Structure formats: structure tokens, C-alpha cells
Amino acid sequence: MRAPLLILCIFFSSFFAEAQGELLARWDMHAEIAKVDKLGQVYLVNGSRIEKFDKKGNSIGVYDRSDLGNLSSIDLSDPFKPVLFFEEHAGLVFCDSRLEILNKTDLRVLGIFQAVAVCSSPSQGFWVFNQQDFKLTKFDSRFKVIQESEELSRFTDVGILQGSLAERNDRVFLQTSSGRILIFDRFANLIQSQPDSSATAFSWAEREYYFIDGNKIMSKNSSTNFGPVNEYFSGSKPLLNADKSGNFVLLVYEDYIELREFKF
Fold this sequence. Notes:
Blueprint: H1 2-20, E1 22-27, E2 33-36, E3 42-46, E4 49-53, E5 59-64, E6 73-75, E7 83-86, E8 91-95, E9 101-106, E10 115-120, E11 126-130, E12 135-139, E13 145-148, E14 164-168, E15 171-175, E16 181-185, E17 190-194, E18 201-204, E19 208-213, E20 216-221, E21 229-234, E22 241-245, E23 248-252, E24 257-261
Antiparallel strand pairs: 1-24, 2-3, 3-4, 4-5, 6-7, 7-8, 8-9, 10-11, 11-12, 12-13, 14-15, 15-16, 16-17, 18-19, 19-20, 20-21, 22-23, 23-24
């Protein structure tokens, strides 16, 4: 009897360890924005300063310029070309893997006067949601408009976005402050509107999105209104924020930040 019981204990112990992920690094600090890319590289932001770390927790780059104000968001879809968005001054900065500036633009020069959400596109260029005309616009790498959505003001909450915008698998996802998810094709045509939800997505994958529920990270299919909600991670403490890319998950608690890798 002892052998089967021992095997069972080892199985559940191994399963629990996998469900918690492997702890790779920890930072005893606060960050206003904390993001991870698909290589496990971590970006911790305070104000306009960004510090980049490898997955072992070693510092490997710093962006520290205050001319555009505080950073609003950072898009890491391409870990070799981070895109920085500074909403206050409508600034968009394209960096290399060392956080050195490759290019930048003032979105107001491009006719975007109230940009509230920006993300890069795998097919080159970037998407912007303009709160002034309630449109989603795609620019190519030469800052020319190549796609534009219809006017979206019929969604009454779309003017107060929380800045959730991402392109995955030829779909563009935009989430409003009420939790409504608008899904567009790669030509900026609105193809689906999911109902309001209390869940705010922090990360988008090809077929699902992730959100926080207390001390848990939950996932839901992004292409259906009625799909099941699944538990991805459960910890012992409430989460303030989180981010996920590939197998890597960044967990933000009140007084520290952890990077974990999940291999299942």
C-alpha cells in the first residue's frame, strides 16, 4: 500500500509545483507598469524610466528620458522592438532590444489628437485608437494610414478606454472601461462585440485573454461570449496586477514582483 500512496503523493506534489510555475526572479520593489515579453525579459516602469531585466533578474537596459512625460503603455509583441506610448504628449517611441531609440513620432502630426491606446502590428506598423473621432486606425512603418475602422461612438463607453489594445492572429482586440471587448479583423472591420464584463484583460493570446480575480489568474476564450472561464494560476496573496507572454507570467503584489515560468 505504501508504494502506490507514495507515487500518488509524488504525482500531486509535481502537479502542484507545475501549477505554481517555476520561480525565476523576484524584485522587492514597486512598479507603476510591469510587463514581460515572450523571451522572459521583464520591463519595470516608474514615471518615464524603464529598466529591463533578463529572466534571471539581471539588469540589461535602461530608458530614462523625461521629455515626453510619464509612460502610458509599452507594447512588447516584438521583444526586439518595444513600442513606447506617452499619452500626455501623444508621443510614440520605437526602441531596439537595448531600449535605444530607433524612431519616434508625434501622433498629433499624423492627425491623431486624442490617442488613448496603441499597439504594434505583427505585419509591421501600429494601431491607434483616437478618442476624438472614435476610430481605430492602422499606420504602416512610414506613418501612412492603411486601415481605418468605422466611427464607434454608438458604444457609449468607448470614449473612456483603459488602454487595452492588442493584435493577435489577424484579430485586433480593444477593451473599453466597462469590460466590453470589440474585435476587429486585420482590415479594421468590426466583426464582434462581446458584452460588458467586470473582468479587465491584462494579456491577450491568439485564442484567449487573461484577467485577475483576487489571488487568481483566469482565462477565457476571446472569440465567444459564452465560453468557459478557466483558472490558470492561484496564489496565496491578492494580485495587484499581472502580465503574461508565452510561458512566462509576471505577478505583481503589493510589496514585490515575481517572474514565473509555466511549462505545461
